[in-house]
Design brief:
The protein is an alpha/beta fold. It folds into three domains: about 70 residues, Arc Repressor Mutant, subunit A, CATH 1.10.10; about 140 residues, Rossmann fold; about 140 residues, Rossmann fold (3-Layer(aba) Sandwich), CATH 3.40.50. The chain contains twelve helices and 14 strands. Strand 8, helix 8 and strand 9 form a beta-alpha-beta unit. Helix 1 packs across helix 3, helix 4 packs across helix 12 and helix 5 runs parallel beside helix 6.
Length: about 375
Amino acid sequence: MGTTRQRSDLNAQVRAYLRQQGFRPGEQLPGEREIAAALSVGRTALRPVLDALVRAEVLERRPQAGTFLKAVPAAYAHGARVSIIAPFSGTGEPGRETDAAWLHRVVSAFERIAVPAQLQLQLKDQATCAADPCSIKVMARDAAEEGAQAVLLLHPLGTREKICCALALLHDLNVHPLIVSSRTYPGLASHVYFDSGWGAYLGTRHLLQLGHRRIAFAGAPSGHQWVQERVAGYQQALDAAEVARHAKWIWYPDNSERLPLPQDGADALRHFLSLPPRKRPTAIVAANDVIALRVLDAARRQDISVPDELSVIGFDNDPGSLLAGLTTIERPTEALGEAVARVTLERLAEGRHAAAVTHRLRPVLIERTTAGPLFHKEGHLP
């Protein structure tokens, strides 16, 4: 059967073979005899490795049919160490209540790919020193000095300047930096995130398909890059449908980078209701669920029927959106964790001079009850 190290090496060879041959998920693989010959190993040594890949859900055996590729395997890590720095225990700031649960989901999905590939993980909780503006740089240096070959910053706390310093430091220490963040850092790190612009495009397009033409965007503070990306996606959907825009259909509370607050949703609806009757929107795409949920609450307080008189779409699919029946755009959380694990393993396999890459995932629309067809008369809002 061979030693543990020999099986580990063969596991890496089989993973590389599956990637290099260009097999696609769902495709049937050659038989054991052919794979063994291609790798110059015996079938007795190969079989337990294939069994392990079945357990890891890379391969699937179908009775009377053969073995099929279930997922393109990540590179094998050979015990490489990766540090993940994130505010795991939360910061206590309003609007961050779900962060700890979201981070847990991302890291759990990361582990599903990374652990079978023998990646060693070390978690560092930035929340314990959130008051220190230089904490991200200090923690990145510590991770490098402790032997990390790659460091993942997962929704790190800090200004863009401080995070840039941390990423540059990792480069100088020959550690591959990766980041999961709504901010982008071109050239400084491999970046894995979801496509905010596409999500807003998807939500706006859904409202257009329901017959709406007066569609507004209820924004969060405009200093956030993710807010600007979502506004751009909203505008692109209107342009693609050749629907005229109205400057006052885009509303921001301010131009800071503070966290969105529920009050922002109430203020947004108040602004839209102040417009002349024939300029008032029939539908609203909100920057996130925090804002969308308060728009719903404020609308119902004013006896505006949702969705008969006003349709509302959120973004994020936070827990509260389910109870409210909010139609929303869901971030692909588990897919994000798996994708960043694959990118990490690929960067490690390419060595210390591996180039930074960008990987964007597309959100999906979750249809519930707050978005409906345009059945009402012009100038319907009070």
